[in-house]
Amino acid sequence: MATYEYDCPRCGRFETRQPMGTAADSHTCPTCLGNAHRVFSAPHLNAVPEQLSAALAREERSRAEPEVVTEVPDSPSRLRP
Ligand SMILES: [Zn+2]
Predict the structure, then answer these.
(1) 1-46: pLDDT as tens digits
(2) Has residue 77 been placed in a domain?
(3) Residue 9 sits in which domain range?
(4) Which of 27, 29, 42, 78 could form a disulfide with 8 if both were Cys (CB 3.0 to 4.6 A apart)?
(5) What residues does the ion ligand 1 have nearby, CB within 5 Å?
(6) Quick one: pLDDT at residue 10?
(7) What is the distance in A from the centroid of ligand 1 to the CA of 5?
């Protein structure tokens, strides 16, 4: 079973549980019996920890524009007096 989200114009969003791959583009609203449209979202992404989310965003970005090191980092020996 998978959870699908629908948006009723009158009542707002609700979720239904249906076998994977069987969700239609619209669903009868359980409250007003009106026609609700399917919402394509990834609600579970909200549960991703902030650090992991940042790492994923950085990884995504680096595919297009890799971070390039332009300077040699100070070596420890140079820091000695
Ligand atoms: Zn409704």
Answers:
(1) 888 999 999 999 999 998 888 888 999 999 999 999 999 866 555 5
(2) no
(3) 2-64
(4) 29
(5) 8, 10-11, 29, 31-32, 34
(6) 97
(7) 13
- Number of domains into which the chain is organized: 1
**Token pair listed for 23:** 């969700």
Yes or no: say if 38 and 25 are a contact pair by the CB < 8 Å rule. yes
Q: Is residue 72 part of a domain?
A: no
Structure tokens at 21: 């791959």
* C-alpha of residue 40 to centroid of ligand 1, in Å: 18
pLDDT score recorded for residue 80: 60
Domain assignment present for residue 78? The answer is no
Show the CA angle centred on residue 34, arms to residues 29 and 38, nearest 5°: 55
Residue 1 is encoded by which pair of tokens?
A: 């079973």
Residue 67 burial (CB count, 10 A): 8
User: Could you tell me the distance, in angstroms and rounded to a whole number, from the CA of residue 63 to the centre of ligand 1?
Assistant: 43
